[in-house]
Amino acid sequence: MKFTLSWLKAHLETEASLAEIDARLTMLGLEVEEIVDPAKDLGGFTIAQIVEAEQHPNADRLRVCKVDTGSGIIQVVCGAPNARAGIKVILAQPGCFIPVTGDKLKKGNVRGVESQGMMCSWRELKLGEDHDGIAELEADSQVGAKLVEVMSFDPLIEISITPNRADCLGVRGVARDLAASGLGTLKPLVVSPVKGSHASPISVSLDFPEDSQSACSMFVGRHFKGVKNGESPAWLKDRLTAIGLRPISALVDITNYFTFDLGRPLHVFDAGKVKGGTITARLAQPGETLLALNGKEYALSPEMTVIADAAGPEGLGGVMGGEHSGCTEDTTEVFLEVALFDPIRTATTGRKLEILSDARFRFERGVDPAFLVDGAELASAMILELCGGEASDLVIAGAEPDWRQSIALRPERVEALGGVAVETQRQVEILTGLGCTVSEHGDGLLVVPPSWRGDITAEHDLVEEVIRVNGYDLLPATPLPRPTMSKPVLTPGQRRAAWVRRQLASRGLVETVTWSFLPSAQAKLFGGGAAEMHLANPISADLDCMRPSVLPNLIAAAGRNADRGFKDVCLFEIGAQFDGPEPGQQRAVAAGIRSGRALPRHWNEQTRPVDVFDAKADLLAAIIAAGANADSFQTVTDAPGWYHPGRSGVLKLGNKPVAYFGELHPAVLNALDVKGPMVAFELFLEALPPQKAKATKAKPLVKLSAFQPLERDFAFVLDAQVSADAVLRAAKNADKALVTDVSVFDLYEGPNVGEGKKSLAISVTLQPFDKTLTDEEIEAVGKKIVEAVVKATGGVLRG
Amino acid sequence: MDELKKIRDEALASVAAAGTLDALEAARVAALGKKGSISGLMASLGKMDPESRKAAGAAMNEAKDQVAQAIAEAKAQLEAKALDDRLARERVDVTLPVRPDTVSGRVHPISQVMEEMAAIFAQMGFDVAEGPDIEDDFHNFTALNIPAEHPARQMHDTFYFGEREDGSRHLLRTHTSPVQIRTMLSKQPPIRIIAPGRTYRCDSDMTHTPMFHQLEGLVIDKTTNMGHLKGCLLEFVTTFFEVDEVPVRFRPSFFPFTEPSAEVDIGCSREGGELRIGKGASWLEIGGSGMVHPNVLKACGIDPDEYQGFAFGMGIERMAMLKYGIPDLRTFFDSDLRWLKHYGFVPLDVPTLSGGLTR
C-alpha cells in the first residue's frame, strides 16, 4: 500500500513530522517498508540565474554560462540546448550528490574550460522524466534560495498491510489508525447526496440461488449522461503516478482513486454499450466467457459472480471489468457500479483465473459493507466535477448486510491477556477512536465495531486493538515463572540423535543438512520415487520427490566436493527419510558416507581406499554412542540394491533391519555421476531397542579377577563362505565363564589352504576368576573351543 | 708380593685401556677368569703354609677386589656411553606431522543452534516436541484458524502432494506450528514445549530456500499473558546471543493463529557497516509471536475461557546467521566441505548453560 504524505494529510490533520509518522505506522502494525523523500537528497541544490551564455570555444554543442548563484557569479559549462541568458535554473555546486547517479559533483574542466557547477534537468534530480534540457523555473523564483524551500516535495510512503486490515487498504483507514493513536485528528468525510436529474435507464438486479445470496448482497448503480471522459486534473494524476499507477482517463482514474483513497473499488461501464435495460449480478453460466480489461479471455465457471447485461457477462464481480463495456475517450454515457462481493467467492475466482487486481485484493479481504451508498455519492460528485454531465437517481438492488455485532469486553481482560494495565477510560477512548461504539454493560463494556472492521469479532480482538493502539512498547517483559530446578527435557530419541551426531563428528565425519526432496530419478535408485511421493508443485524438476533415503543427497554432495577438488569426503546427516505419503510415514536416519582414500597420504602410514569396514566401523560407533549393544544384532548380507552385493551387510534385530552398511553399488554411483570408491551406512535410529529404564543410576559392581588372563591362538581352515561371525560366536560361547574376548588376527585365502577354503586365526582371551588354571584345564578349554568351532562351521583346526 | 702387584697393575692397566665392552670382558677373563692371572696366583695359595697363606691370601683378595671394582666401574661407563651413542643415532625429525587419524569432523550450525536453543528453553521448563514433515491440511492450516479460503493461506507458498481419493491434499508443513496442534491434542495443559524442525515453502531466491528450519514455542496454562511472552523471549535472546543485553521490541502484526500478535525485533547496531546484536540504534526482525487464538485452543479441545497462552516461531538459520556472522542462507544446504569445516562446530563443543553455549 503506497500513498504520499500530502495524500495522507488530506485525511489527517497533524503536525507530526515524517519521522514521527514513520515510527508510529510501524508501531501500529502498519509496517513501513520504504519512505522515499525526494527532499532528502536535494538539500544542497539552489536556485540560480544564467546571466550570460556564450558558445564554448572548443565544442559546438556546449555553452559557457555565467551563473548568478545569489552570492556571486560562477562559470558553468552546459550542454543543454535551452541554456540561455535570463532563465532561472536549479544549480548543483561541488559537493552536491546528483540523485540520478549518486555521484558527488566536483569542479570540472570541460574541453579546456573550467566548470564550477552543474545545472540540472528534472530527471537528474529524479523529479521527473524530462531530460530534453535543464529545468527552467518560474521567472519570479528567488535566486540563491534553496530548492527545498521553494518547491514542495511529497514524500512517498509504502507500508505493508496484514491480511486482517482491509480497512487500511485505503489511505483514509491509515489516517484513522494514526488519529486513534493520537497522532492528529481524522478530517471528516462529508457526503452530500447528488441530486438526480433523471431516472436511470439501466436498472440493477441480483439473481442468485438461495444458497448463494451472499455472493453479491448489494448493488448500487447510477447513470450519467453528457460526460466528457478527458484527462484527469494534475493533482489526481500526480497522486496516481506517485503510487505507480498510470493515469488513463478521468473515469478510470476516479475508480482507481477511490480504490486507494477509500478502499472502495468501483466500476464504470460505458452505458452506451450495455445491452438491454438491466445490469444483473448473477453466477456465471456454464460455457460463458469474458474478455477482461487486461485483454485476456477467460472461461468462467458457475461458482463465479459476473455482472451481466442482456448479451452476457460484462465483468467479473469484485475481480475485473470487461473489455467490451469499458470506457473510452468517446464515452459520454456511463453507468457506475458500487457493489459488495463475497470475500471467499472473490478469492476463489481470482485464484482460479489467476487474476490479481486491486479490486480482488480488497474484496477478498473485506470491503466496508456500509459504504456503498455514500461511496456512490462521493464518486458521483467526483465524476460530475471532473467530467461534467448529469447524474440519474441511484438504483439499488439488495440491501446492506447486517454487519453489526455487539462484543462484551471485560476491561480487566486487557491486562489478564495482554499483560499491560490500561485504564478503562483509555480503553474506551482507543476503541472509539477506531470507530467503535462503546457503551457500559454490567461491570464491563459493550462494543460495536465499525462496519469497516470486519476483523474484530470477539473480545480478544478488542484486547489486541487496545494494547496495539496503546503501544506494544508499553508491554512489560515479565519473566516466565519456571520450575525451581529444571529436569532433562529431551526424549530418549532426541538424546540418542545428539550422541550419535557427536560420535560421528568425532570420528571425522562432517555433518551436513540436505533437502528432504530430490530428483525422482535418484529416488528410484534408492527404492523410492512412487507417484504419491511426488510434489505437485516442486520448486524445480530436480527437487520433485521426497527422499526415500538420505544417501543420494550425500553422494551427490560428495560429487560436488570432488568437482571442487576435494576427493576424500566424509559426510553424515541425521534426518528423515520418507517411506510413505501419510504424516508420520518417515523414519529418523543417521546416514554417512566416506569416499576416496581412507587416510590422507602420510610419510609413515600406508594409505588405502575406503572399504566396507570403514562404513561398518562408523556404524558400530554410532550404535554404541546411541547406547545400544552392537553384539545384540545379527549381521546378514541382504543389503538393498544400492549397495555392492558382495561387500555390504544388514544389522537386524529379529526380522527388523536396524542398519545397512557397505560399499555403494558402482552402477548407482555411475547413475549419480560420482566416482568411487565410496562406502556408506544408514542407521534407523527408532529401530534401535529402547534403552531400559533403570530405577537407579548405579552401575553394576565391578568384578576384578586376582588372576592373570591368558591368550590362546587357534587357526581354522574353513569353507570360504563361512562367516567370521560364526567362528567368533562359537568360540565365545564355548565356555562363557572363562572366555572373555575373541578376536580375529589373521585371514588367509590361497594355495596353502586350497580352492574355496580360507584360514581364519583367532585369539581367545581366558580370564580365570577363582584360581590359576592348570595346564590340563587350559588344554580342556582349548579343546572345547575347537570342538565348538568345528561343530558350528564344519571347519578343521589348522595343523 | 711384587709379582702380585705387577699382575694387579697389569690387570688394572688393561681394564683402563679397554675401550669397548668386549675388550673389557677380555681384560676380565685375563685377570679374573678361570685361567686368569689373578686366579692363577690364588691357585698357588694351596701350596703355602698357613702363616704365609693368610698374609698372601689377604693381599690377593684385596688385589682381586680392586680389579673387580675397576671392571665394574669401567663397565658402567662403557654401557652409559654405548646408550648415549645409540640414542644419538636414533634422532628423528620431531617437526614431522603426526599420524592422520585424529582429524575431527564437524557438527552443522543448524544442529548446534538447535541444541543451544533447547538448552536455554529447558531451563525455563520447556519440553522438546516433534512432528512429521508431511502434514495434512487440518494440522497445518485448519486447526490453526486458517480456513480454506482465508487470504492468509496466500502468505504461505505451500508444497502440495497430489490429490488423494477423498479430494484432499497432503502438504509439506509450512511452519512448525502443526506441532502445537499435535501437542495440544495429545496432552492437557499446562503445556510448555519448543518444537524445532524442518519446514518448507515453495520459494527460492537470495534470502529464501525451499527448506529451512524453525523453532516453535508454545505455553498454555491459565495465567500466562503477553508480558510473559515478551519476558520469555527477552531472556532467550539475551542468553542465546551471549551479550549483556539484547533489547526486544514487539510490533503489532497478524497471524491467524494468534491474537494479539506481534513481530519480534531485537536490538542491534550497524555502526561502521558491522552488524552487532545488542543495544543499538537499529532493529532486526527475528520471528513472530502472539497469544494463542481461542479458535486454535477450541480446535484442540481446550476451553479458551479457562486456558490461554502464547506461541512464537523463529527461523533457526536466521538466528545462526545473526549469532555466528554467516552471510548467506543458501550456503547452509550446499554441503560444501570448506563451509562446513569453517562454520561447523567441533564435537566437543556441547552447549551448556553452566559452561557457556559457545567457546
What is the number of beta strands of chain B?
Answer: 11
Q: Number of helix segments of chain A?
A: 19
**Could you give me the name of the CATH homologous superfamily of the largest domain in chain B?**
Bira Bifunctional Protein, Domain 2
Low-confidence stretches of chain A: none
Count of distinct strands of chain A: 39
Give the end-to-end Cα distance of chain A, rounded to a whole number of Å: 92 Å
Q: Which bin fits the share of residues in helices of chain A?
A: 10-25%
Q: State the name of the first-level CATH class of the largest domain in chain B.
A: Alpha Beta
Low-confidence stretches of chain B: none
Q: What's the story with the biggest beta sheet of chain A?
A: 7 strands, mixed
CATH topology of the largest domain in chain B: BirA Bifunctional Protein, domain 2
The whole-number mean of residue pLDDT values of chain B reads 91
- Taking all Cα atoms into account, the compactness measure Rg of chain B is 43 Å
Strand content of chain A: 25-35%
Oligomeric state: heterodimer
Which class of the largest domain in chain A in CATH terms? Alpha Beta
The backbone outline of chain B, from C-alpha atoms, is rod-shaped
Write the layout of secondary structure elements.
The complex is a heterodimer of chains A (799) and B (359).
Chain A: E1 2-4, H1 5-9, E2 12-13, H2 18-27, E3 31-36, E4 46-55, E5 63-68, E6 73-78, E7 88-92, E8 108-110, E9 113-115, E10 118-119, H3 147-150, E11 156-160, H4 171-180, E12 185-186, E13 203-207, E14 216-225, H5 234-242, H6 250-261, E15 267-270, E16 278-283, E17 289-291, E18 297-299, E19 305-309, E20 312-316, E21 320-321, E22 334-341, H7 343-353, H8 358-363, H9 373-387, E23 390-398, E24 407-409, H10 412-418, H11 424-433, E25 437-441, E26 444-448, H12 459-470, H13 492-506, E27 510-511, E28 517-518, H14 520-525, E29 545-546, H15 551-563, E30 570-578, E31 586-595, H16 612-625, E32 634-636, E33 643-653, E34 656-664, H17 666-671, E35 678-684, E36 710-719, H18 724-734, E37 739-748, E38 757-766, H19 775-793, E39 796-797
Chain B: H1 2-17, H2 21-32, H3 37-43, H4 50-89, H5 109-123, E1 127-128, E2 134-135, H6 137-140, E3 160-163, E4 169-172, H7 178-186, E5 191-200, E6 211-221, H8 226-241, E7 248-252, E8 258-269, E9 276-277, E10 282-292, H9 294-299, E11 308-315, H10 316-324, H11 337-343
Parallel strand pairs in B: 1-5
Antiparallel strand pairs in B: 2-4, 3-4, 5-6, 6-11, 7-8, 8-9, 8-10, 10-11
Helix pairs in contact in B: 1-2, 1-4, 2-4, 3-4, 5-10
